[in-house]
Amino acid sequence: MKVAKITKGASLIIYSPLLVETVLFSSSMAEGSGSVSLAEMETAFKKFAVHGDTKATGKEMTGKNFAKLCKDCKVIDGKGVTITDVDIIFSKVKAKSARVITFEQFTQALVELAPKRFKGKSQEEAQQLLYGLIAGKEPANVGVTKAVKAGATDRLTDSSKYTGSHKERFDETGKGKGKAGRQDIPDTSGYSLAEETHARASGTSFHLHSAMANKGPSYGLSREVQSKIDKKYDPELEERLVEWIVAQCGPSAGRPQPGKQGFQTWLKDGCILCELINSLYKDSKPVKRIQNSSMAFKQMELISQFLTAAEKYGVTKTDIFQTVDLWEGKDLAAVQMTLMSLGSLAVTKTDGCYRGDPNWFHRKAQENKRDFTDEQLKEGQSVIGLQMGSNRGASQAGMTGYGRPRQIL
């Protein structure tokens, strides 16, 4: 059994091949006040254990950090103790399938390293000398470049002197605000701070506003792109789609206010769209549950269910709009295109589910299959296609060479 040191009134670690125990010794067994306590060793152990890993707890140490401790604390001298010795002892004290060691296993490793580092010393004296190398130490950041705050560098790195948009990225203490400092996060609630405060004070419940998201104005290229998208919206097509949806879903669907914003508000919650796709089926309805809700994610979920059902109905992916195109009003022309494609499929199918004027939508091309007999197919094999030319009345009579032959002199 190997016995490690001891401080006055502190714990003594006794190591055996099978067991590591902590035994409390009385102050009469101490050897003086110059010895290193286990508390100091554990502090150094935690500092090196968390080095380079923000998620580390300090209770376990990797082999890489153990090697760094031995290197920074001069345990590795290149003679008695080498990096190879450190790796071998680390593998010896750790658990069989583990990649880390605990503090108890760490102290056991020091017991193995002590006689190698301080040859000619007793086991107890060697351990105390080794503890002295480690106690109070912390990882050295060798090779890390530090910012030199002088002159122009000091001015460029001082956040209190920033102006404009750069100033908004830092708080009063100079700490970065993260994402909140880099972009404007729109308030989609539709309520001002005064309205919300009044509602809370009066005990009135409030919900998300059903209008478009509260986004700031766009400028430059973004404004130009949005303007081109808005010009694709067709008011005449809007009237036709409204008539079809009302005819398909019934008077309970209501009617929107004329204009793009009224059309978007009418369809935004997804309920009418789900009722529309359900009305195109006789028995099995694609959307099982349609529940009106003022919550944003519920509304977008219904829109997503409509889009999935529309794709299964036959609408191509290129004709299907995105959920944000309708819910945020980004591209209502794409919404019109999806409904037009859905109406064309409905009027083409002869299942009796379509309601309304058949002339509202164009019919899609249908298959015109032909059946030919074997005799007709054989006759076709002997026919020379017109793209081959004509062989009627053709002969070589009267044909002469074109031009004079080449004269060789």
From TrEMBL:
Region Disordered, as annotated, extends over 157-190
Keyword Ribonucleoprotein listed? The answer is no
- Keyword Cytoplasm among UniProt keywords: yes
Domain Calponin-homology (CH) stretches: 235-346
User: What cellular-component terms does GO give this entry?
Assistant: actin cytoskeleton; cytoplasm
Compositional bias of kind Basic and acidic residues: 165-185
Question: A Gene Ontology MF term for this entry?
Answer: tubulin binding
Example GO biological process: microtubule polymerization
Q: Where in the cell is it found?
A: Cytoplasm
| Alphabetical UniProt keywords | Cytoplasm
Q: Indicate the principal place this protein occupies in or around the cell.
A: cytoplasm
Looking up PANTHER family in the UniProt record yields: CALPONIN, TRANSGELIN-2
Q: Which family does it belong to?
A: Belongs to the calponin family. Belongs to the TPPP family.
User: Mind telling me what this protein is named?
Assistant: Transgelin
Query: Which species expresses this protein natively?
Result: Tachysurus vachellii
- What is the phylogenetic placement of the source species in the record? Eukaryota, Metazoa, Chordata, Craniata, Vertebrata
